[in-house]
Structure formats: structure tokens, C-alpha cells
């Protein structure tokens, strides 16, 4: 890849009217730092490990990395419980390592997004230590204290969202673990302090943030009971108070005051696309919001068709740019979800990289990894999410590039066969398929930003056309175990085949079981 030594954040996009902002064209690669690569041999991935393996991301063709949290943390929730937002946890390295990683990424033309966790801190954060020290402490109101709990429930299996603090004689609110007390964003000092955190990282050149549970920061000020909580559902699954929008508008104004089109990607983990759209605001809240239904969708054409249609119907009128994601650190990997089928995972990759919207890849999906299997004594996460967090196998032979202490979680199944080195040597591997699809997406204005239109197809097949000016592509995905025919007017050639059969070749109007194809009109190709 050509080296661009200008940090992207100092290199704003040219002001061309119909040129989209960079994040619409981006292909984002989520790095889960504990499991990407180990630079110091302690069995846990770290910043130096990431810096040493950036070439993998560049070779693949992704242009943006998002790092799950690397800040100081007691690790009750694997770093989503932060005790210092402006320092790096020693497990991952130092502030100097982070600056070196930012510089190394920018030197390669890669943008870097950090994880911003605004809803809660760690209970070890000095702010909370001060807040719980006495009822009349000036920081008491930085968190949410009540004499009586309501029926709100916490996520990650934590039961009530309220924990009794015997020392100060009140309950504090936590929508996640008791070690993750919720900040009170209605207190202007909290807003100022958290804006200071954003400035700290923006000043160091980060290109934006993924905002953890962005829909949770505002809470119903009446603290009314909720029937869904009474029925056992965590509040974080549906919390949707108007005040969260005000918080996001404030963060957006701050981020927009920096040069270089910094981006905000929100985790609005509410399974209602109509509600999620609201978090784009009037172009003054999130730039992008995750779209979660595909994260637990089975390999089913009806489920995907419904979800894709809904995103198209609801986001277009709001001028909200979609995102697509199949796996992340909180959910089962999609190959595992699809019954372990590599064939389906390959077809899903073709869909992910040809839809209208920014694709987010989770590290290891390009290798076709499945969840690791853990024995009871190996389990780390209180929420049971270890499976997708397994270490990446870099080399075929054990310990797969993790020289030193045994990694913090077991490797995923078939780690040697699925390792980066093994798959790079095989032109028909899923790794090469991802790379080819990313190259196709980059080369095609239709795939990057064109319109999306569904085409008539048998019910087991999803087929759609992407178009931008004269540039046209068709993607078709067969979700069934049977051969399917697809009638398309005109002559088409296959540009990418999820089965790894060599391309280009003429499209014969058929799809094999669980096969997906990317097509281009023949006249355009000749
Ligand atoms: C988000 C994170 C998840 C974490 C939770 C609480 O959902 O993705 O890993 O446990 O927020 O911070």
C-alpha cells in the first residue's frame, strides 16, 4: 500500500459538493486489543502488538480501525469499566505506545477510532471514590444516588440496577455491573469533564469515537418503574430518554470544532431501526449508528430481506447513512451463528461488503473464525461473551504467533488451518475472498455510495442492484442448500464468487447452495 505520511486528521477532504465524507466510504476493522496481537509475551494483546500487525489491516484493504477500550481499568468488564480515561492500562502499554500506534496508523493512511464510554466509569475511578465518600461531597451528584431503588434492571446478568452503599447509606445506579456506576450527565461538571476527555484524545489526533451505549446516557428523571424491567429485561436494552440526544448534540458540536471530519459512531443497542434513526438527529448527533439486527440474525433470507428493506426505507428519508455489522466482541461470531458453516460465512461476507452503508468487520471474521470453546475454569467474562474474544491465530504452528505466556483465552477451533499465514498462502481462502471483495468495493462508486434496489428473485435468494451513474453491480445471495436460478435481463459477468471459483467468468443464471456472487453487466466490463 502506498504510504501517505500526512496524518489523515490534518488532511481534510476537499470541499466538493457531492463528495461524501470519508466515513461513508470507510471500511472499518474492529480490533479487540486483548486478542489481536501480543507485543510483550504476557499472553494478553497490547498496543505494541497492534502496531506490529497493522500491515495485516492494510493488506486486507480496510482503512479505519476501531480499538475497544485500552484505558486504565480494573477490568471487571474487560476495559469497559474505566478508572482513568486519559491514560492507558499497563496491560496494553503506555500513552507513548498509543501515540506511536496513532502515528504508525496515520503514516499508513489508516484512521483510528477509540472507544468512548460515557455512560459509566469504574467504581475505582477517583470521581466515584470521591462521590461515595460522603453525601455532601461536591462530587456526590456526579453519579446517581437514591434513597429507594426502583425496578430498573442491569445488563450482563447483574440483577437490580441499584447497589446499596452502606458507607453513605444510599443506592447508586448502574445499568451494567455494580463495578460500573452510571455518571449523571445532567450535572454540567460531568459534561465538562467528559468533554475534556474527548478533547484530550482529539488533540492527540484520533479520527473519532465509537460511543458505548450512546442511548443510555440520559435517564428518565422521574425514575418511573418500567414494566419491561419488571418482566426481567435490562433497562439498557430499551432506554431512550430525550436527554441522551442533548448529550450527543453537545459531543457532536465539540467534535465538529476540530479539523479533519472526526466521526462519531454510536452503539445504540435498541432493536428498533425507527428509534435508532433518531440518534442521527438532524445531522447534528451521531454520524453513524450501529444497526444491530444482523448481529443476532440467523442465516435466513426473510430476516435479512426484512432488515435491509427496513434500513433502506427508514434511513434514506432521514439522510442517515447506514452501517452493517455481522459480528463483534459482545455476540457470537456469525460463522458460529450460521451453524459453523464456512460456506455461509463466505456468502455473508459478500453481502456485508456490497450493501449500502459503511461495513464494520470484527477482527478474525476475515479468517472465518468460530467462537472458542471455554472450560468453566477458563471463563473470564461475567456476561458469557468469551467465545468471540479468542486470540487471533497468526501462524499455523502453535502457539500461532503468541510466543510467551499462554493466551488469556483458548484459541478458536482450527486455529492452525485458519491462521493468517496459512490463509495468505491459499488463493481460495476466505481471507483472500475478503480482500478481493474489499478491493471490488473500493473500485466501484456503485458499491461505495450508489443506490440500492431489490431485484425479483426466488424467495431463498436475496438479489439487489447498486447503481451510481453508469457504474452498476448486482449482488445475489442464495440462503438455501438447493441450487437456485436467477433470471437477470442482459449478460452479466461474475466479479467475485463466495465459493472461491476463479473470476471473471460469465454468469450462467444459477447459484449453488449458500453461494453469493457479485456481478457486473458485460457491456461495462468489455
Ligand atoms: C457495550 C460494550 C460491552 C460492555 C457494555 C458496558 O455494550 O460493547 O462490551 O459490556 O457496553 O460498557
Please give the structural blueprint:
Elements (H helix, E strand, L loop, with lengths): L21 H4 L2 E4 L1 H4 L10 H6 L1 H7 L3 E4 L3 E2 L11 E5 L6 H13 L3 E6 L9 H8 L11 E2 L15 E4 L4 E4 L14 H16 L4 E4 L15 H4 L11 H15 L6 E4 L6 H5 L10 E2 L3 H4 L4 H15 L7 E3 L8 H4 L4 H11 L5 E5 L57 H5 L5 H14 L1 H5 L1 E4 L6 E8 L2 E8 L5 E2 L6 E6 L7 E2 L3 E2 L4 E6 H4 L1
Parallel strand pairs: 1-2, 1-13, 2-5, 5-9, 9-10, 10-11, 12-13
Antiparallel strand pairs: 3-4, 6-8, 7-8, 14-15, 15-16, 16-21, 17-20, 18-19, 18-21
Helix pairs in contact: 7-9, 14-16
Bound molecules: alpha-D-glucopyranose.
Alpha-D-glucopyranose (GLC) binds next to loops.
Structural description of this entry:
The chain is an alpha/beta fold and 526 residues long. The protein folds into 3 domains: 22-122 and 187-441, TIM Barrel; 126-173, Oligo-1,6-glucosidase, Domain 2 (Oligo-1,6-glucosidase, domain 2); 451-525, Golgi alpha-mannosidase II (Immunoglobulin-like), CATH 2.60.40. Helix content is 27%, strand content 17%. The protein contains 18 helices and 21 strands. The protein has helices at 22-25, 33-36, 47-52, 54-60, 95-107, 126-133, 188-203, 227-230, 242-256, 273-277, 293-296, 301-315, 334-337, 342-352, 420-424, 430-443, 445-449, 522-525; strands at 28-31, 64-67, 71-72, 84-88, 111-116, 145-146, 162-165, 170-173, 208-211, 263-266, 288-289, 323-325, 358-362, 451-454, 461-468, 471-478, 484-485, 492-497, 505-506, 510-511, 516-521. The strands form 5 sheets. The chain has an 8-stranded parallel β-sheet. The chain has a 6-stranded antiparallel β-sheet with strand order 14-15-16-21-18-19. Helix 7 (188-203) packs parallel to helix 9. The model is unreliable at 1-17 (pLDDT under 50). Alpha-D-glucopyranose (GLC) is lined by residues 77, 80, 117, 156, 176, 212-213, 267, 329-330. The site of alpha-D-glucopyranose has 10 residues, from loops.
Amino acid at each position: 500500500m502506498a504510504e501517505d505520511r500526512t496524518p489523515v486528521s490534518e488532511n481534510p477532504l476537499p470541499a466538493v459538493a457531492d463528495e461524501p465524507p470519508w466515513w461513508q466510504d470507510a471500511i472499518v476493522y474492529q480490533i479487540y486489543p486483548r486478542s489481536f496481537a501480543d507485543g510483550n509475551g504476557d499472553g494478553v494483546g497490547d498496543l505494541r502488538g497492534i502496531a506490529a500487525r497493522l500491515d495485516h489491516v492494510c493488506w486486507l484493504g480496510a482503512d479505519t480501525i476501531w480499538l475497544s477500550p485500552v484505558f486504565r481499568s480494573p477490568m471487571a468488564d474487560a476495559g469497559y469499566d474505566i478508572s482513568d480515561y486519559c491514560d492507558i492500562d499497563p496491560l496494553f502499554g503506555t500513552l507513548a505506545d498509543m501515540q506511536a500506534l496513532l502515528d504508525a496508523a496515520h503514516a499508513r493512511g489508516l484512521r483510528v477510532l477509540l472507544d468512548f464510554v460515557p455512560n459509566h466509569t469504574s467504581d475505582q475511578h477517583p470521581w466515584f471514590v470521591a462521590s461515595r465518600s460522603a453525601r455532601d461531597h461536591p462530587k456526590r451528584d456526579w453519579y446517581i444516588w437514591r434513597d429507594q431503588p426502583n425496578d430498573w434492571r442491569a445488563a450482563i446478568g447483574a440483577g437490580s440496577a441499584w447497589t446499596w452503599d452502606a458507607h453513605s447509606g444510599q443506592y447508586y445506579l448502574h445499568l451494567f455491573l455494580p463495578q460500573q456506576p452510571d455518571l449523571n450527565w445532567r450535572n454540567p461538571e460531568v459534561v465538562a469533564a467528559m468533554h475534556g476527555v474527548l478533547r484530550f484524545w482529539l488533540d492527540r489526533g484520533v479520527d473519532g469515537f465509537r460511543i458505548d451505549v450512546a442511548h443510555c446516557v440520559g435517564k428518565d428523571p422521574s425514575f418511573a418503574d418500567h414494566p419491561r424491567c419488571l418482566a426481567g429485561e435490562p433497562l439498557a436494552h430499551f432506554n431512550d430518554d430525550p436527554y441522551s440526544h442533548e448529550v450527543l448534540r453537545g459531543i457532536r458540536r465539540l467534535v465538529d470544532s476540530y479539523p479533519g471530519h472526526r466521526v462519531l459512531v454510536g452503539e445504540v443497542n435498541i432493536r428498533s431501526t425507527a428509534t435508532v434513526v433518531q440518534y442521527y438527529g438532524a445531522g447534528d448527533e451521531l454520524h453513524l449508528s450501529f444497526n444491530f439486527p444482523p448481529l443476532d440474525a440467523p442465516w435466513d433470507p426473510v430476516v435479512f430481506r426484512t432488515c435491509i428493506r427496513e434500513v433502506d426505507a427508514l434511513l434514506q428519508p432521514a439522510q442517515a447513512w447506514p452501517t452493517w455489522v455481522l459480528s463483534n466482541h459482545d455476540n457470537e461470531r456469525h460463522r458460529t451463528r450460521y451453524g459453523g458453516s464456512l460456506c455461509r460465512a463466505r456468502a455473508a461476507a459478500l453481502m456485508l461488503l456490497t450493501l449500502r452503508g459503511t461495513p464494520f468487520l470484527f477482527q478474525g471474521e476475515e479468517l472465518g473464525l468460530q467462537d472458542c470453546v471455554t472450560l468453566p475454569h477458563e471463563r473470564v467474562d461475567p456476561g458469557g461473551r468469551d467465545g468471540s474474544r479468542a486470540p487471533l491465530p497468526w501462524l499455523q504452528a502453535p502457539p500461532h504467533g503468541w510466543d510467551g505466556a499462554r493466551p488469556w483465552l483458548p484459541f478458536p477451533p482450527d486455529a492452525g488451518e485458519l491462521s493468517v499465514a496459512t490463509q495468505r498462502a491459499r488463493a481460495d481462502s476466505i481471507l483472500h475472498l475478503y480482500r478481493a471483495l474489499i478491493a471490488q468495493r473500493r473500485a466501484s462508486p456503485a458499491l461505495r455510495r450508489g443506490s440500492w434496489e431489490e431485484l425479483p428473485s426466488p424467495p431463498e435468494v436475496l438479489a439487489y442492484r447498486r447503481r451510481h451513474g453508469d457504474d452498476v453491480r448486482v449482488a445475489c445471495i442464495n440462503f438455501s442448500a438447493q441450487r437456485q436460478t436467477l433470471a437477470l435481463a442482459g449478460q452479466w459477468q461474475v466479479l467475485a464468487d463466495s465459493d472461491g471459483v476463479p473470476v471473471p467468468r460469465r454468469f450462467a443464471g444459477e447459484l449453488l447452495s449458500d453461494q453469493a456472487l457479485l456481478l457486473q453487466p458485460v457491456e461495462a466490463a468489455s
